[in-house]
Design goal:
Helix content is 59%, strand content 18%. It is built from 9 helices and 12 strands. The protein has helices spanning 5-61, 64-75, 147-198, 213-258, 268-285, 299-306, 308-325, 349-365, 392-408; strands at 80-87, 90-96, 111-115, 118-128, 136-146, 289-296, 331-334, 339-345, 368-370, 373-375, 379-385, 414-415. The strands form 3 sheets. Strands 2-1-5-4-3 form a 5-stranded antiparallel beta sheet. The chain has a 5-stranded mixed beta sheet with strand order 7-8-6-11-12, sandwiched between helices. It has a two-stranded antiparallel sheet with strand order 9-10. The longest helix is centred in the N-terminal third of the chain and has 57 residues, at 5-61.
Length: 416
């Protein structure tokens, strides 16, 4: 089972806290135990010393009852297991539990040891007898303290310390859990916002709560997202501008590819493409369509007499006359040096002849002035209307044949 990040963090913090608290309890226990051991020793030493001082006079006088009474008072203390007074190695008085009495001891010096949970201390005191008795009186006081009872406060203290340590663990674990929830929530919010930005949602932001390191991280992320948004917007604007430039350039290139550079009319490829479309449309809709082919009369003579710049001026003027004389739906283009094509869609044959005659008369009326020279010109026109057996090639061929007839017939005329 995969643990969530905050659960792993909470568990790790709890384990560290438990280890720290366990070490702390052990340290406190050792310190308390050392202090308690010193206390037990001092307590036993003090008790034995006080008894030794208190009993020497009654012992010297042989007042066994007074000594016994004193010992009984001492053993009323809960931590005193027994008290014993020896005079010249013989028991003079005893009070307490004999089962706790130390078996065997050294009587030449002070002696202490732990025996079956009883802390035993022996104090030998030697007094010189100067009056009734000769020699020395050897008084030994034995005291036994119950270590368990003396250690009870230590155990209670350790229980309290352990309880406090456990409470601290629980509190700190709870705080760590709350912090873990806050931390993981902030990380999740940051992750969600990052995924949104990666998906193209540059408006995604992380809520800023407080003034800690996570808040600073959130602010840094928001600043980065804003910068990415600005860069993206600028890039979009640049792409849009460049796309528009490319579109204009494409249209210009397409227009140039279909436009005659000298006249601005359609070039041969464009006008033939338009003618093919008009013929197909006329076939589908059963509407008439006519094609006229025009040629400037004696154009070579104009070039030879006045030069090519003047010839170009003549071509441009004729082109303008064609544009001005045709309807908006009509199509005109330059298909050769001085040759033009006119496409008259949805036009009856007699109406097509009228249009071509209007063009012929308008050209004849023009006077072209160029380089200080005035030049006039005429055009010959061949006209053909789409028949049942025609396609574009045959239709253009018939119009060319009519143009040839107009040229041979004296020029400056329309033949259909």
């Amino acid at each position: 089972m995969k643990l969530h990040f905050r659960h792993r963090m909470f568990l790790g913090i709890a384990i560290i806290e438990i280890i720290v608290m366990a070490v702390l309890v052990l340290v406190i226990k050792n310190l308390v135990h050392a202090e308690q051991s010193g206390y037990v020793h001092r307590r036993a030493e003090t008790l034995a010393g006080m008894l030794a001082v208190a009993v020497h006079e009654p012992v010297e006088k042989g007042e066994r009852a007074n000594v016994q009474k004193l010992l009984d008072e001492v053993t009323k203390n809960a931590d005193v297991s027994y008290v014993r007074v020896l005079v010249n190695d013989k028991e003079f008085a005893f009070s307490g539990e004999r089962t706790s009495l130390l078996k065997g001891y050294k009587d030449d010096h002070s002696f202490d040891q732990v025996n079956d949970g009883i802390y035993d201390v022996h104090k030998d005191i030697v007094y010189s007898l100067k009056e009734k008795a000769k020699g020395e009186l050897n008084i030994c006081v034995q005291t036994g303290l119950d270590v368990a009872k003396l250690n009870a406060p230590e155990e209670q203290l350790l229980v309290k310390v352990g309880g406090l340590a456990m409470l601290a663990v629980l509190l700190s674990s709870g705080l760590a859990g709350l912090f873990g929830v806050y931390l993981t929530r902030q990380i999740e919010l940051l992750k969600e916002a990052a995924n949104k930005v990666a998906g193209g949602d540059f408006q995604a932001r992380v809520p800023v709560v407080g003034r800690d390191e996570l808040s600073e991280t959130a602010e840094a992320f928001n600043a980065m997202a804003q910068h990415v948004r600005e860069v993206y917007d600028n890039l979009q604007d640049a792409v849009a501008a460049r796309t528009e430039e490319l579109r204009v350039e494409k249209e210009r290139a397409e227009l140039l590819s279909m436009t005659d550079e000298l006249t601005g009319l359609m070039n041969r490829r464009a006008v033939f493409s338009s003618a093919r479309i008009e013929v197909a449309q006329a076939r589908r809709s059963s509407l008439p369509v006519s094609i006229g082919v025009l040629d400037i009369d004696f154009f070579k003579r104009i070039n030879d007499t006045y030069g090519h710049p003047t010839g170009d001026a003549v071509i441009r003027r004729v082109s303008n006359v064609l544009k001005d004389s045709l309807r908006e739906a009509d199509i005109v283009g330059r298909i050769g040096g001085e040759e033009f094509m006119v496409i008259l869609a949805n036009t009856l044959p007699e109406d097509a002849v009228t249009v071509m005659e209007r063009i012929r008369r308008a050209v004849e009326a023009e006077v072209i002035v160029h380089g200080g020279v005035s030049v006039s010109c005429t055009v010959s026109c061949g006209l053909a209307t789409l028949g049942a057996a025609d396609d574009l090639d045959s239709l253009v061929a018939r119009a060319d044949e009519c143009l040839y007839q107009a040229k041979n017939g004296g020029r400056n005329q329309v033949v259909s």
